[in-house]
Design goal:
The radius of gyration is 19 Å and the shape is globular. It is an alpha+beta fold. A four-stranded mixed beta sheet has the order 3-4-5-6. The protein has a two-stranded antiparallel ribbon with strand order 1-2. A two-stranded antiparallel sheet has the order 7-8. The protein folds into three domains: 74 residues, no CATH class; 103 residues, no CATH class; 34 residues, no CATH class. The protein is built from six helices and eight strands.
Length: 237
């Protein structure tokens, strides 16, 4: 757990909870109070914060994002599609029966576009940088939204809550290319797990993604609890 992850988790929890409410009721409750309640669960070490000043900085950013949404609710006031989840598991479907690979993931928001009877995929961004154009996130979202609900996906956007008042539309990837790209990556992951061969492209030194896990593996991290999805949570001390 690191402060940027804690910030993202808190803001996402508040905004995603709105999608289950009727559109006309979404802003009837205090999102600021809800944010405070959610933040209490990731305060201090639980959010990976080193001190009160660091936590205060991230919390103020989160408050600013909630304030921005309240002042510019836009598409949040329109009808939304909610993908059903089974027994608490994340939304998922069989990506490849031949390879026995399941694709799972959670889409932040699916706006229903009534005139076209289609959906608009919206991803809330709480970081400071734009999403990499080579990221697999959009191809994965397209596949999930296409296979887990009946309407066509006609639009996708990233909403950079730290600085943008409205979602920023991005081009949809080609569906067949998205499938091949995601499946290729999934096959590599499956093979690596079967062979127990997890080699970082950066070599023994490791990259910024590997290094925290290497520290935890060598018992250098501090265990602080278990997440709602039953994942062990550590911080680097």
């Amino acid at each position: 757990m690191q402060p940027p992850l804690a910030l993202g988790q808190a803001v996402h929890d508040v905004l995603e909870s709105l999608s289950v409410l009727p559109a006309q009721q979404r802003l009837n409750r205090s999102l600021h109070n809800q944010f405070e309640e959610v933040w209490s669960k990731i305060s201090g070490k639980a959010g990976g914060f080193k001190n009160e000043n660091e936590e205060s900085e991230y919390k103020e950013r989160g408050k600013g994002m909630i304030k921005r949404v309240l002042e510019n609710p836009g598409m949040l006031l329109n009808k939304a599609i909610k993908i059903k989840q089974d027994s608490g598991l994340p939304p998922h479907y069989l990506l490849s029966e031949k390879d026995n690979i399941i694709l799972c993931g959670k889409i932040d928001w699916l706006e229903y576009l009534q005139e076209e009877d289609s959906v608009h995929v919206v991803d809330f961004k709480t970081g400071k940088h734009d999403e990499d154009e080579n990221s697999l996130q959009l191809p994965i979202y397209l596949l999930l939204a296409t296979n887990l609900q009946k309407r066509k996906v006609s639009k996708a956007s990233y909403w950079y809550l730290d600085r943008e008042n409205t979602p920023k539309e991005v081009g949809l990837p080609n569906a067949s290319e998205a499938y091949e790209k995601v499946l290729e990556t999934a096959k590599r992951m499956k093979l690596a797990r079967q062979l127990q061969s997890f080699k970082c492209p950066k070599g023994e030194v490791g990259c910024f993604v590997c290094q925290p896990f290497e520290i935890v593996y060598r018992r250098g991290g501090e265990f602080i609890g278990t997440s709602d999805s039953k994942q062990d949570i550590f911080i680097i001390t």
